[in-house]
TrEMBL record:
Protein name listed in UniProt: Vacuolar glutathione S-conjugate transporter
Protein family per UniProt: Belongs to the ABC transporter superfamily. ABCC family. Conjugate transporter (TC 3.A.1.208) subfamily.
Keywords noted in UniProt: ATP-binding, Cell membrane, Glycoprotein, Membrane, Nucleotide-binding, Transmembrane, Transmembrane helix, Transport
InterPro entries documented for this protein: AAA+_ATPase (IPR003593), ABC1_TM_dom (IPR011527), ABC1_TM_sf (IPR036640), ABC_transporter-like_ATP-bd (IPR003439), ABC_transporter-like_CS (IPR017871), ABC_transporter_C-like (IPR050173), ABCC_6TM_D1 (IPR044746), ABCC_6TM_D2 (IPR044726)
Keyword Nucleus: no
Length: 1407
């Protein structure tokens, strides 16, 4: 112990930093403490406070909670007042006490007093004007809590200053208390504990999507366009300050990390020296406290800055991808590239950029460690350096190959997701066709190819992990072996304790950053590929130069319609002019419109022509969605109201779809509803207590309702020009008449207000309102051209007469069902992993791979940890007799290294190659089977985006994150157990604290896991709206461009993105908290070990503390790996939980199958169909859409199902196909009750042509004969019969890849008919199969059906057009789900029947 009587006067008034040992053993001078632990931090705090107060002064008051005011006023403010008072008193005592007074004491005390007062002012301002804890105050008081410790120790070591000791102890205690108070969240005074996304606190605007995109866009514009990695450079330029803010704490972290081997050296030397001063023990313990507490705080600060950088990058990239998507032409969208970029590339960038600072920091740490190691083992230090260098060089080519392998894997993911999205979007048609098993085979095959493709990437990843782990175990072995051999040859000193354990710690500090570098560097390199893919995607969007991206789609102004003055119309310049134009869909595809010459002026323009003549292509060209390869296309159009042939319906309310997010005007909205024939539909929604929602792609609406909602959107926009693509397909004559009189008639809205409209249609009633302006034949040459002037009319008032009694077939589904599904998904998201979930996953992985993983992890833990104990025994033997039994120690050391290496490589192979392959295929198969086996009603209740989230996000977690986390947890757990066992053996009394430590860890993990798991799964759920918005945007690009809704759509995407970033960033914050707690726990364990061994010095060997501290050095890493990987595993297992619950809870069509009948192979052999008192509905909670219907159809009879829109026609077909619930009665075919027939078998045995043609990825042959039952000759014959063989043969014949987007809707219906010609069945079902073809093509299709489907086949056809009604044997007229009339066409037309009225109404409209 120091003798204070020998302490020189003024020893504490020097900078030191170490005080004279005669004053105090191992302590700083007071002047050094005043300068660096008081003046410096308080000065920095005061510098920051002033601008922060200025910022808060301009901010609005956000918190007015009384309870918060009470809490903040009486707790933190009271503590600050106490600290302020105590510091004034302490400063007064210090200036009058010579033993502790220095030249900086007064300045230090005054600065502390001023800083405390400033902290009180800042605390009050932060409480009132922010909703988050103050970062400035938390950082300041955290630093103060650490810097006050050395002064507290110093004061207690100096005798006769009792008052100052007590004062400073109180100051320290209150400082810790104020730190805890200021760290408390304010949200508990504002809201209850959040249960979902809506309850999460907002994140600061610097991380918002709009701000991030603006910065990235500005940087993108500055960077040279020719730069190869332009997006990568732009990213770092945009977020450079956020990136640089992580460098200072990382450098400080490096400095403190290398303080650990010096502590080990000092402790081992002190323990091994008998005459060493006893006061060094407590001093060394204090140094351990300072180092490990500082490490914990600095690591938390470092990761906070890094995670903010990642969150900003993610927000910027997702935003710019969406912006690029809105800038693409619809034909440029290939598969689901945008979804893949957002889901795979951006997420991989966010995941890998966590280690962006580790790359340079690891290189720096390797150099420092190498230099320090050379001081211990001289030339032998080159061994780990060589090993490290070889590992790095070997990693480089592997990393390069990994980039290419990863690219191919992502491309396969993209293809699978595109096929899955297409399947989910057209699941109704797929089920009607009985192609569920075929779709399952197609998507499963794509999944198998994806897994096979990813195997190369995973094997390369195995090489990377193995190469990066070799230095960890091989470097100590090789270094000590080399040093021992050299010492034997030179007869130098053998390896001693201090030298061995200092070197071992330095080798760890050398190989650990190298391991990080070898793993992080290839990942960072691989992200370059992701940036490059996004870069190319962004560049493609710039091809769209003819659209005003900043324009808005809603023209304001009064809704009162004014009289249109014809004299103001100008016809001098055409709206659109084609001059010798050759049009193609992309620069690389063939021309589809040749030498087109056309002028479209204001007024009425009608395009008619047969299927495939190019009508839709002309309209898309007008909107700028095609390419002009030759000639020119000139347009004066700005905002256009566009209705595409397939209505674009977003998942929302009908009002949202019609208004497009524009300002709502009720009177104008009501007129729009009435003019588009939707009044009765809206009443039906209200009458049936059904929310006016649309569902995914309009799943809750009938086909006619979707057409009318799209038309209503065009009317509501008030745009001057309307482009309408076959908007009357699927509408009955009465609805067409209503719409015509309101909109298209001589006194309709369009004429009265001078709107110009360009219409492609087959409906002659509309065409005959004036002469044809443009007529297209199969070769699009102009036949006639004229202009119809817009006349002067006043808009008539809304029609008061009721529309045709129509009740939509599909308005009966309660949207509350959809809400319940979403609520169920949310409740599932809040569950953690359970043993049953782990059992489900391990069952998918297989027992043998799981057992092998545990065995190899155990080998690795034993080999790597017991080697440290063996090294102690070796050095202790050397201390007694140098190099005694050298080869025994070297041999066992070699064996331990071999076991460790075997455990790493074999364990990685098990989970990277075996487990991922088996679980990836198994879980995807379960998910796909369940999805396809679910009833059609299920898809009407749940968002497609939610299902796609499972196929993308959840499957991605299953593919990589889950097995990686599982393997890391197993290896980390084995390693922690091994280390704790050794520490208990060495530390003796430490074993008493192990149960308490494990208990603390258990409760921390349990407390933390619930929150982290919930937030992680909320993070997954929060991405579903963003996914859905991306998908809807891709499907509606033409409409968005036409209406100029790009900006509005981007704002919506930013809103969804900001919602998704809240759980994303909060998850990072939770990780930081966990890391901080674990660091503090490991620091506490270290302090306990050091304090125990130093206080009982005579009971412990010097080697024991060396082993213990080296194990603690790696225990932090192992414990962190175990807890974080367990938590990540629990969060990742949420994906398995979601899949398992989806598989378990999703209803299956087989569940409602009664006792199955024995179905003969030739069934149905006759085609007799009986509906016996059938009542059917879409859900058990809704009103029946088919009510007590009885109908018998004879074998070979041709029956037409007619009726107004919403009368139940499609529902009758769906009931026949067992796609809706038959609540009462039964349906029989050839005497077999259909409820006893497996659903897919039933649909496969029937021949159905749905209204929406369905095609799959594959060849023409596969799409026209998906079951492989027909010969090439019969397929070719069918194509020739529908008149499309010439085009098919020109594009490669039957083996050519089929892309449905290249064929018009009408051509697809012809191909669907060709597919039906190859199906052998006694029953043919036509669901508006001719709705999208012209009259000539309709006649051709009808002739084919009359010829090919002779009297031996029973035909049931839903018809809106009645030109060929005489070809049917019987007419069934439906109304409100009931049969109104049923007789032959002649009989119904000869009497005053409801059908006659319908027929005459249609005839009058077409003549």
């Amino acid at each position: 112990m120091a003798d204070t009587s020998l302490c020189p006067l003024g020893s504490d008034d020097t900078f030191g930093p170490r005080v004279n040992p005669n004053c105090r053993a191992f302590d700083f001078t007071i002047l050094f403490q005043d300068a660096f632990f008081s003046v410096l931090p308080t000065s920095l705090f005061l510098i920051v406070v002033l601008p922060r107060l200025q910022f808060l002064r301009r901010a609005s008051v956000k918190l007015m909670s009384y309870s918060l005011v009470v809490w903040k006023l009486y707790i933190p403010k009271s503590l600050l007042i106490l600290i302020f008072t105590l510091q004034v008193v302490f400063t007064a005592f210090q200036t009058t006490t010579p033993a502790i007074y220095t030249k900086l004491s007064l300045a230090s005390g005054l600065l502390n007093i001023v800083a405390t007062f400033a902290a009180a002012v800042l605390s009050f301002a932060e409480d009132q004007r922010t909703v988050r804890p103050s970062d400035v105050l938390v950082v300041y008081f955290s630093a103060a809590s650490i810097f006050h410790i050395p002064r507290l120790r110093t004061l207690w070591l100096i005798p006769s200053i009792t008052t100052c000791k007590i004062l400073w102890t109180a100051i320290y205690g209150f400082t810790v208390a104020i730190l805890l108070a200021e760290s408390a969240r304010k949200t508990k005074f504002l809201r209850q504990l959040y249960q979902g996304l809506e309850d999460m606190p907002e994140i600061d605007d610097n991380l918002a999507g709009q701000a991030a995109e603006d910065k990235l866009q500005s940087a993108w514009n500055i960077i040279n366009a020719d730069r190869r990695q332009r997006l990568l450079y732009a990213t770092f330029r945009a977020y450079g300050w956020v990136f640089l803010s992580g460098i200072p704490p990382r450098l400080a972290l490096t400095a403190l990390t290398f303080a650990q081997p010096f502590l080990i050296t000092a402790l081992v030397d002190w323990m091994g020296t008998d005459d060493a001063p006893a006061d060094y023990g407590p001093a060394l313990t204090g140094a351990v406290v300072l180092v490990y507490s500082s490490l914990a705080v600095l690591r938390a600060i470092y990761w906070r800055q890094t995670y903010r950088f990642i969150t900003t990058i993610r927000a910027g990239l997702v935003s710019i991808i969406y912006t690029a998507t809105t800038g693409l032409k619809s034909a440029q969208i290939k598969d689901m590239a945008a979804i893949t970029l957002m889901d795979t590339d951006v997420e991989r960038i966010a995941s890998d950029f966590k280690y962006i600072h580790e790359v340079w920091a690891s290189a720096l740490e390797v150099g420092i460690a190498l230099w320090l190691l050379e001081r211990q083992v001289s030339v032998a230090c080159l061994i780990p350096a060589v090993i490290c260098l070889v590992s790095v060089l070997a990693t480089i080519p592997v990393s390069r190959k990994s980039v290419n392998a990863q690219r191919k894997w992502i491309e396969r993911i993209q293809k699978r997701l595109a096929a899955t999205s297409h399947m989910l979007g057209d699941v109704k048609a797929a089920k009607m066709l009985g192609l569920v098993n075929v779709v399952f085979a197609v998507v499963s095959k794509l999944r198998e190819i994806e897994i096979k493709t990813s195997e190369r990437f995973r094997k390369l990843l195995l090489w990377q992990i193995s190469l990066s782990n070799i230095p960890t175990d091989f470097a100590p072995f090789a270094t000590f072996t080399t040093y021992t051999v050299i010492s034997v040859v030179r007869a130098d000193d053998s390896l001693n304790l201090a030298q061995a354990f200092t070197s071992l710690s330095l080798i760890f500090l050398l190989t650990s950053p190298l391991l990080t570098f070898c793993q992080a560097f290839p990942s960072i390199v691989q992200t370059i590929t992701c940036f490059r893919r996004i870069h190319r995607y962004i560049l493609n969007s710039h091809a769209l130069t003819d659209l005003e991206m900043s324009a808005e789609g809603f023209s304001g102004g009064a809704t009162e319609l004014q009289e249109y003055d014809q004299s103001t119309a100008s016809f001098s310049a055409p709206l659109v002019s084609f001059i010798n134009a050759d049009i193609s869909w992309s620069p690389d595809t063939q021309v589809v419109l040749h030498n087109l010459n056309m002028n479209i002026t204001q007024g009425i323009t009608v395009l008619i022509g047969p299927v495939g003549s190019g009508k839709s292509t002309v309209l898309e060209s007008i909107l700028g969605q095609t390419y002009v390869k030759r000639g020119s296309l000139n347009s004066t159009l700005t905002k256009v109201a566009y209705c595409c042939q397939t209505p674009w319906i977003i998942d929302g309310t009908i009002q949202d779809n019609i208004t497009g997010g524009a300002e709502f005007d009720d009177s104008w909205y009501q007129f729009t509803i009435s003019a588009c024939g939707l009044e009765e539909d809206m009443r039906a929604f209200t009458k049936n207590n059904t929310a006016k929602r649309t569902g995914n792609k309009g799943a809750l609406l009938s086909g006619g309702q979707k057409q009318r909602v799209a038309l209503a959107r065009a009317v509501y926009s008030k745009n001057q020009v309307l482009v309408l693509d076959d908007v009357f397909s699927g509408l009955d004559s009465r609805i067409i008449s209503v719409i015509s009189s309101h909109l298209f008639g001589k006194e309709g809205y369009f004429k009265a207000t001078g709107r110009s409209w360009i219409l492609a249609t087959h409906t002659r009633k509309i065409v005959d309102h004036g002469p044809y302006t443009e007529i297209l034949e199969r070769r699009p040459d102009i036949i006639a051209e004229s202009a119809m002037p817009v006349q002067k009319f006043l808009l008539p008032p809304p029609v008061d007469e009721p529309l045709a009694s129509e009740k939509a077939d599909e308005t009966q589904v309660l949207v509350s069902d959809a809400d319940s599904i979403h609520s169920n998904a949310t409740s599932i998201a809040q569950k953690g992993g359970t043993w049953s979930v782990y059992g489900y996953y391990y069952h998918s992985a297989g027992l043998l791979p799981v057992v092998l993983l545990a065995v190899f992890s155990g080998l690795e833990a034993f080999g790597s940890n017991f080697a440290t104990v063996w090294l102690q025994w070796w050095t202790e033997a050397n201390s007694q007799q140098p190099n005694k039994e050298l080869w025994k120690y070297l041999g066992v050391y070699t064996l331990l290294f071999g076991l460790s290496l075997l455990g790493i490589v074999a364990g990685c192979w098990v989970f990277l190659v075996k487990i991922i392959t088996t679980t990836g295929l198994s879980l995807h198969r379960d998910l796909l089977q369940t999805t396809l086996a679910s009833p059609f009603s299920f898809f009407r209740k749940i968002s497609i985006g939610s299902i796609m989230n499972r196929f993308s996000q959840d499957i991605q977690l299953v593919d990589m994150e889950l097995p990686m986390n599982g393997a890391q947890f197993v290896t980390g757990a084995f390693s922690c157990v091994a280390k704790l066992i050794i520490l208990c053996i060495l530390g003796k009394y430490l074993a008493v604290s192990v149960p308490f430590t494990l208990g603390i860890l258990f409760f921390i993990q349990r407390y933390y896991l619930r929150t982290s798991s919930q937030v992680r799964l909320i993070d997954i759920e929060s991405k579903a709206p963003l996914y859905n918005h991306f998908i809807e945007t891709i499907h509606g690009l033409s409409t968005i461009h036409a209406f100029k809704w790009e900006s509005r759509s981007r704002d919506q995407s930013i809103e969804y993105l900001n919602d998704s970033r809240k759980p994303f960033y909060m998850l990072f914050c939770i990780h930081i908290w966990l890391q901080l707690v674990l660091d503090l726990i490991v620091g506490a364990i270290t302090v306990v070990i050091v304090a125990t061994m130093t206080s009982m010095r005579d009971q412990f060997a010097a080697g024991s503390i060396g082993v213990a501290l080296n194990l603690v050095l790696t225990l932090n890493q192992s414990l962190g790996q175990m807890i974080k990987s367990w938590t990540s595993l629990e969060m990742s297992i949420g994906a398995v939980s979601r899949i398992r619950d989806f598989v378990r809870d999703t209803p299956s069509e087989s569940d409602i199958l009664v006792t199955p009948s024995r179905i003969l192979p030739e069934w149905p052999s006759h085609g007799v169909i009986d509906f016996i008192s059938v009542s059917a509905c879409y859900s058990s909670t809704t009103v029946p859409v088919i009510q007590n219907l009885s109908l018998q159809i004879r074998a070979g009879e041709k029956v037409a199902i007619c009726g107004p829109s919403g009368s139940g026609k499609t529902s009758l077909i769906l009931a026949l196909l067992q796609m809706i619930d038959v609540q009462q009665g039964r349906i029989e075919i050839d005497g077999v009750d259909l409820s006893t027939v497996p659903r897919n078998m039933l649909r496969k045995r029937l021949n159905t042509i749905p209204s929406d043609p369905f095609f799959m990825p594959g060849t023409v042959r596969f799409n026209l004969d998906p079951h492989g039952d027909a010969t090439d000759e019969s397929i070719e014959s069918a194509i020739k019969k529908v008149g499309l063989w010439k085009r098919v043969s020109s594009e490669g014949g039957l083996d050519a890849e089929f892309s449905a987007s290249k064929w018009s809707i009408g051509e697809r219906q012809l191909l669907a008919l060709a597919r039906a010609l190859n199906v052998c069945s006694r029953v043919l079902i036509l669901d508006e199969a001719t709705s999208s073809v012209d009259w000539i093509t309709e006649g051709i299709m009808q002739d084919i059906m009359d010829t090919e489907f002779a009297s031996s086949q029973t035909v049931i056809a839903i018809l809106h057009r009645l030109r060929h009604i005489d070809r049917f044997d019987r007419i069934v007229l439906l109304k409100r789900g009931q049969i109104v009339e049923c007789d032959s066409p002649r009989a119904l037309l000869e009497r005053n029947s409801e059908f006659r009225k319908l027929f005459m109404s249609l005839e009058s409209s077409e003549t």
